[in-house]
Amino acid sequence: MENIRNQIKIFFLRILNIPFAFLMHAIDLIMWPIQKIIGVRNMPYIFLLPNLIFFGLFVIIPLGANFFFSLSSGDELLFAERELPTTKQYDQLFDCESYLNPNTCTEDFFWRGVYNTIFFVVFQVGLMIFFSVLTAVILNKKIIGRGFFRSVFFFPVLLSPVVVGLIWQWILLKNGAFNAIIESYGGDKVSFLTDPSWAMASVIFVSIWAHMGFYTLIVLAGLQAIPPNLYEAAEMDGTSRERIFFRITIPLLMPNLLVVFILASIKGVQTFDEIYVLTGGGPGTSTSLIVQYIFTTGFASSGSVQNFGLAAAASMVLGVVLLFLTLMQLYFSRNKESKHQEI
Amino acid sequence: MSDTASRIIKIATKKRYKNKYHWTDYFSYFYLFLGVLLMFGPVVWLGLSSLKTLAGIQEYPPTILPLSQIQVDVEGYDKPLPIFNVTQEDGSVKQLAQIKRIGINAKMVDPLNPEETIKVPIDKREKVREFKIQWENYVDPLRKYDFLLYFKNSTFITVVATIITLIINSMAAYALSIYEFRGKNFALVFVIGTLLIPLTIILVPVFYVVANFGMINSLWGVILPGAATPTGVFLLRQYMLTLPRELIEAARMDHASEWAIYWRVVLPLSIPAIAVLAIFSIMWRWNDFLWPLIVLSKSEVYTLQIGLNAFHGELTSQWNYVLSMTMVTLLPIAIIFTYLQKFITTGIASTGMK
């Protein structure tokens, strides 16, 4: 049986291989003369070229252009028609009487975004890591149906933000399933997504739901890397389970957690999609984060109000935050590796 | 006698001690049970509800299975009327159709005797249900709206982008793993560098570049910017570094061109890593939202994700179509997941990326 299945597999792979082999032979017709001319020594440059062209065009040039956009003003997208140089965008972004009160700023939408993002990241990342660790610790135990439970917790990670947004928007409707459950237990209906005091909490909840599985998986990998002989030794000594958890599991997981924490923050700061589908940043500006601001100022507002320069300047601010977080991540993951070597 | 009894008790208690459940065990199963409800429940609920009629979806409190109320055509009324079981004063039950609900009373009519209307208190009636699957939810949007086109666009983007990503990333990984050449370290740092620059901070200028190439509102404008991925290069390079060099030397001895070594020797040996990258790429592309949202503004080039979002925005009340199309959108990924779960989870655990 296994044999037949394998043969069928190989048969299909062969058929799939035909166009691929054809394409590769065709490319070889070009590559062979090139190799003759430039020599084997220089061939790696040819292999690198397509990737570098793509990186250059869509990452490096845009990064430079972002500086330019943020330092020039005007409504045009074309470089030649923009005024240069000016710090107008940054002046406008940072024009505040008091940075603690978004209402006193010219770009109050931006500052609300900043504060919402901080609030969102603190709670989303904190709660998500807590539940990821809890789930991972439980899934790491010898329980029945471990594989099933693991895939159940991981499954939402693969759903698209639109799907996540729509499912939850529908469940959290005023006449939705969640409210039906609440009412059946004698509670009052809640407008989860349209009540400003609830919207942020709902958005954080949905975001945790959607991304928790990913971090659970990473923490689980970290848990499984803890040498089992430590546990065996502790059990021999009759150590209580609580003590094992707090004295062995948590300390050995710490370096891993730190990296997960920063990784989650990097993603959290950039959150946009699910919230866009769920609430669109509303009601009012109660759930709009920084990327929502960039998107709205740069692209979504109708023609005349589109302000690429302002959006680029806000991107630069976000970029600085992300750079800081990424450097922290690199620093800590290097630390983690050296610690592992010590063990 | 008492000796045996005490021994039995001893054995019994000893055994119990060995199998003793710690409180964390009870907690674990309780937590997992709740987790399954919360994580998987919404998707199951979505699947079941996508088979309901619009009235069934909007019903509050909702029913779990697609049980819709039976409706009948009554003479003299334009719309089909819903049927209720009404308990009458003498205790007997009669089926009546409801015309209108007025406060705590309902204006009802006997379908067999349409001339006469009857007033019934609403707590005296009960809905008559039947199990009915509304396949139209799936067929109508594909026929009446452009969902088939969106599906095609999404498939095109996913397939083409994945092929391009696999080819150019494996080429770069091949160069960075097999050869020693000047500027190799620079190229490596360059690739790591791009890892640090997410799309969200260069939205405006990438849009500018894409606009310069005239690719706004074109599927290529979605495919090309994300084709080269640092994640992919690293994943493949890490794998290719483990391949034995002797194979490459042997191929060179046989006068194979470098390109032939790449696709005949190195690529087939890297299939496991390529499979992981392929699955990732398919997931990224199928689920992509922010970038298509910016580049694609005409409905003929919408992807499934953008189309679904726009459709929901226009027709907020058509939840039956929205739910069924949400199912269609998540189905391909769900199928891939059930078959290739191991690949995905080991891929994520080993790279720390998704």
Instruction: Enumerate the spans of chain A where pLDDT stays under 50 for 5 or more consecutive residues.
Output: none
> What fold name goes in the CATH topology slot of the largest domain in chain B?
MetI-like fold
- Unreliable stretches covering 5 or more consecutive residues of chain B: none
End-to-end separation of chain A in angstroms reads: 47 Å
Order of SSEs of chain B: HHHEEEEEEEEHHHHHHHHHHHH
- How much beta of chain A, percentage-wise? under 5%
Residues in helices of chain A, as a percent range: over 70%
Rg of chain B (CA only): 31 Å
What's the CATH superfamily of the largest domain in chain A, by name? MetI-like
Taking all Cα atoms into account, the compactness measure Rg of chain A is 26 Å
Beta strand % of chain B = 5-15%
Please describe the biggest sheet of chain A, giving its number of strands, its sense, and whether it closes into a barrel: none
Mean pLDDT rating of chain B? 83
Instruction: Give the chain pair forming the largest contact, with residue counts.
Output: A-B, 95 and 91 residues
H/E element string of chain A? HHHHHHHHHHHHH
Report helical residue fraction of chain B: 55-70%
Shape of chain B: flat
Described by the principal axes of the CA atoms, the overall outline of chain A is globular
